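Progress against Task 2.4 (sequence-to-structure conversion) is shown through the following example record, which the project officer requested during the mid-term review.
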Amino acid sequence: MRLLTALTLYRILLPLLFIAAFPGWLVKMLRRGGFATRLGERAAIYTTPLEDEPCGAVHFHAVSVGEAMLALKLIREWLGREPGRRFVLATGTATGHAVATAADIPGLRVTYSPLDFPSMVRRYLNRFEPSQIVLIEAEVWPHLLLTCKRRNIPVRLVNARMSPRSARRFQRFAAWLRPVYRLLDAVAIQEAEDAAIWETLGIGREKIHHTGSLKFDPASGARPKRRPEFQEMLDGFGPKRPVILAASTHAGEDALIAAAIRETNTDALAVLVPRHAERRSEVTADLERAGFLVRLRSDELAATSDRRYVFLIDSTGELGDWTAHADVVIIGKSFLSTGGQNPCEAIMAGKPVIFGPHMENFQPLASRLVASGGCISASDPDSLTRAITAALDPEQARTMTDNASALLARHQGATRRILVLLGA
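Structure tokens generated for the chain above:
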């Protein structure tokens, strides 16, 4: 009875939420080039001939770029065990779709995940007939789950995470969420202590599996690697300069971080990688107002000795390899926005890491990294400047990277355990 009531409320609210969100979504898609892709697939309208579709494949659903990268990591590992197997990766954003397509994995069909309207979900399932659906991290859609349950299609949630804020909100509405979450066939959690909240949401203990974090597993996935063409670009700003890279920055953070780097009074080059490359004009304007000159990755670069320049990476999918060229990495979305970004790629690249006070989406890992001396948390521009100076010291940098790597080692084997759960 509660499931029926919850679904009734959801079916009333879903169209209203879609109408309210549509204008903002439209603007984002225009800015991010989504209309150059097969956007009709969001409404389960397809142009690929049906006979070319990989029916019966394992489907991964990943909304964001980060989730798409995790799905690609699992797919690559799975293909290492079963070469030639077909997969489908369904994304929710244009940038996620672009990253998945650019991966160019043989046998991978990249599509958009359908909106969670019953007719669209049915058309999607009728077309692909997935053998199972794997949700990455947090996205649970009632109509998708319900329709899959009726068709005996297993749905598993992997790398499941629950921030303290989300846990409080979910517990408040647990009675209404339980009927939906009970439809999941398995949940792979990152931290053992999270099992209690998933049980509160109605998932049986036998369905909850502590695998560790796919993000934090240091033994799988491609490591960041140095590229000669990247080094050539960096050398154009002056040879042997320390490189301070700000990763996945959000609005307002670029100028703040660049100013903190300038205040260190070192010869360091600020390399800024915004979370969304289409912010290049906004970021350039912010930096110029703060007294900087800007060179874009997409421009023809000429050598310059002017120390006022910062290097702005306005490309997608290159962050990992730019990280390999850094001396220090600063994590974006942690100073002027909430949630933070994943620090693990930089740690696995052997770089000392600094982040701001807002790493809510990466707790308890972020707090443990600071407590162990593996990372530095900076609360304001002055403390950020001090943190950069400290992280540039070779001895302290070595201590930080050793401590951070030891902490990540606790998640060793998470990828393998998740694949076993999925039947690989």
